[in-house]
Amino acid sequence: MFHKAIFLSVAFLAAFGFAQELSTSIVKASPSSLDPHSPISTPSAHVNVDKRQASGTGSLYDVTPHPFFSSSIGVLGCKINTNRVAYWKEEVDCDNICVKLTNTTNGRTVTLLRIDHSGGAHDISYDAWNYLATGNPAAPGTAIAGGAMGKLDYQYIPADNSKSLIMDGSGKLPLQGANSMNFLSSCLSRNTWVGKNYQLWNINDSLCHKGYDEKCTLAPGANQATCPHALGSGVNVEITNPTDHKVMNIEYPTEKPIPAVG
Ligand SMILES: *[C@@H]1O[C@H](CO)[C@@H](O)[C@H](O)[C@H]1NC(C)=O
Ligand SMILES: *[C@@H]1O[C@H](CO)[C@@H](O)[C@H](O)[C@H]1NC(C)=O
Question: Where is the signal peptide (predicted)?
Answer without folding.
Answer: 1-19
